[in-house]
Amino acid sequence: MSLIEKDNGRKIKIVDTTLRDGEQTAGVVFANREKIMIAEMLSDLGIDQLEVGIPTMGGDELKAIKDICNRNLKSSIMAWNRAVISDIEKSIECGVDSVAISISVSDIHIENKLRTSRGWVLENMAKSVEFAKKNGLYVSVNGEDASRADLDFLTEFIEVGKQAGADRFRYCDTVGIMNPQEIARSIKTLYDRTNFDIEMHTHNDFGMATANALAGVEAGANYVGVTVNGLGERAGNAALEEVIMGLKYLYGYSADNIDTTKFKGICEYVSQASNRQLPIWKPVVGENMFIHESGIHADGALKDPHNYEAFDPKEVALERKIVIGKHSGRASIVNKLNEYDIHVSPELAGKILEAVRATSIRLKRSLMDKEIIHLYCDVIAKEETISTEVVGG
To answer: pTM of this prediction?
Structure first.
């Protein structure tokens, strides 16, 4: 397995659920060939574990999971199950090496959805875990709606799961209602009480999924669940590319075994397969990440990219670009024209900039290089006309 590691030896493992929770995005359906391709791309990227679907659905879902298992990928292959023995039997039939066994843990769900008791939840979870372990599977026991569950009951849930043989506990912020401070307190409490492996699984209903996932890791979780582009139920999940780069640049983990240059390719492929456009302002992989227009920013980036870039664009297979438009400055004009072996004085650059700004406002966009050259020629022609008139006068 690949690892994201800190210099103190602490290791974080990435669990991608694009093919399960990601596909649960309303209106998203991956073709079987797309599921296989995404699994292969994630494995090549260096992801530790892939949650690839729900075998009990049968049909194409079952076939796709079997086909993925037959690819002998580097990643561990996990299937999602209810705390139901027949679900786990279907997972075994597929050939996965790991299962996620999910059951509600909040009183809201237990009373209003399952219409049962905490005791029933513990009993059925334990039976399912024991069955999976007897069949040689790695087991993640998932606490659905854990963020609204009583911490004492969560502690008991983890201890019962541990005694049944579970390998880790997935903490699910199912409706995305946590903030980083609260989630850090909850995860630290659970880890201190149980000393058990915890996986973060966070949703983005308030735009907190990535922040909450990272906060949970800092508090003691050593697995983190993600999806490519943050796909998932409602507002989505923590985004794979954001979490990995956040761990590396905000929390000091090395990610040498993760090939971040492949982010762009898989993000674009999943965007196409899910029919969900990848916004140009998307963190980490959006085209605007390394595009500079405003005069102060462009000038700073030209002098030293570190002035306005958190990391080198080459790390994610993007390119730095200086675009010319309404907010550009003279330094950008000089630099752009230099690319065409045209050298202008600061005074002339200022006049070209006036024309650029007026044109950009009229067209409501930044300008293409050929348009800038055309404006340069116009300004030069006007300057020559004025000079001739002065001489002639």
So the answer is: 0.91
